[in-house]
Predict the 3D structure of the following.
Amino acid sequence: MAIFGKNPESGPVDLPASATEETTPAENDYSLAEVAVDAGTVDVTPATSVVTVITPEPAVLDLAPSESSENSAVFARANYSRRDSLRGEAFDQPEPAAMLTADRLLDQSARNRPAPESGFRRFFYFATLKTINLGDSAKVRERKALDARIGANLEGGAKFVPILTRKGGVGKTTISTLLGMALATVREDRVIAIDANPDRGTLAERVSKSTRFTVRDVVNRAAAIDGFNDFSTMVSRDVTRLDVLASDSDPMLSEAFNEGDYNVVADMAARYYSIVLTDCGTGIVHSVMRPTLQRANGLVIVSGGSVDEARLASETLTWLEANGYGELVRNSIVALNTATQATQLVKLDEIEQHFKSRVRHVVRVPYDPALAAGSVIKFADLNKHTRDAARELAAFVVDALNQG
């Protein structure tokens, strides 16, 4: 738009025809001082004293309805997804490497399925010269699905899972060992169980002990540990590939294992392991408990099958909720050990129903003579129902770590 003022010597300036069409008569009498000049270019012509303000046109994209729809379609096709590819959608951009997934590229037809593991299905597969593949049975598929849950990838560094309760004698150390073995048997990364019991824990006695080092040695030699090979000399490794770090054997020394010491051990374990299980003591107000819970990504509460054991386990959940760990409680797993005394006199279904209203899931661990002895646990020699319960517990723990 052009704005014109009055020249005192030359008189009024006639407006060009084009300017007259765009300017109202009232605007012809405005002086330059009365006009606010915003963004633009000011061009002053000395001969006529005419000031022209050239205002840049805003860059507005005015699409016709058909053009707008076409632009939206292009934008949608630029967002790659496997679902769109299966629907036959066309994309305007080259596919990224992320689209080359295993489920897309691998042929899952019967011809290319793995041979059945055992039984009649395997015999029939080879009897037909590998031309007819019935696949695995339902039980084998369920086992493989459980393996997939236990072995699922965990993101974000080491995951800490305390195993605790307020009452001793309910099988907390046994549950810690079973959980660790079930995880280590399937997973491809490293799993360690740390005995943080201040009252001389017995976790290291549940595996074949191969070293005399304890958590105290890790604290004292932390500065000299330079890599996993150094650290591995301080743990006992089970045949399942579970590593166990023992507590101090002297009760007087174990009382000195404090919050700072636990943090040293936990930091060291986090360097080399993906899952760190902590077998806690019965005293939830012990100084080690605070850093244990602060680091916790998951939680396992152990309950026995008697009235007082179940009540104390439930009170443990209440204490945790009252101290700011409510979300951890809701995502926790309760291991209901049915091998304790008086289990036959109690309605286990009622105990299980109570805990299901407070936590993520409840897993029953059945009685097993191999566990009742209190000696070294050989996972492969356990009753099948016991191994299944441990594997189920491990699957729910990994689910909680991934979804919590």
